[in-house]
Amino acid sequence: MAFKGMLKDEDIAAALQHCAAADSFNHKEFFAKVGLAGKSTEDLKKAFYFVDQDKSGFIEEDELKLFLQTFSAGARALTDKETKVFLAAGDADGDGMIGVDEFTTLVKV
């Protein structure tokens, strides 16, 4: 698992359970429940690169849709609505992607 040693398995499981139903994902609640909200900027940058599956330096909409699967392969994909809300919350510069600094800000807010 990508987050081994950074996050507790039980926190990941609880966070995923909390948003198991379609259209129930809230990034602020998820970051708090999974334990990312309290992590250092360095740890958040590491987390960003786990989510940035294609290693482009940005999290694009297709990667964001599969965000929960970064934490557990069996997790659901985000709905289109959840994905768009999540992207809008993190895309501070309006380029349609979330960069590493945008991600760290999104998690800490």
TrEMBL record:
Alphabetical list of InterPro entries matching this protein: EF-hand-dom_pair, EF_Hand_1_Ca_BS, EF_hand_dom, Parvalbumin
Function summary: In muscle, parvalbumin is thought to be involved in relaxation after contraction. It binds two calcium ions.
This protein's record includes keyword Repeat: yes
Cellular component terms (Gene Ontology): cytoplasm
Family of this protein: Belongs to the parvalbumin family.
Keyword Repeat among UniProt keywords: yes
Residues binding Ca(2+) 2, per UniProt: D91, D93, D95, E102
Keywords: Calcium, Metal-binding, Muscle protein, Repeat
Superkingdom of origin organism: Eukaryota
MF GO annotations: calcium ion binding
Official protein name in the record: Parvalbumin
Residue numbers binding Ca(2+) 1: D52, D54, S56, F58, E63
Domain EF-hand: 39-74
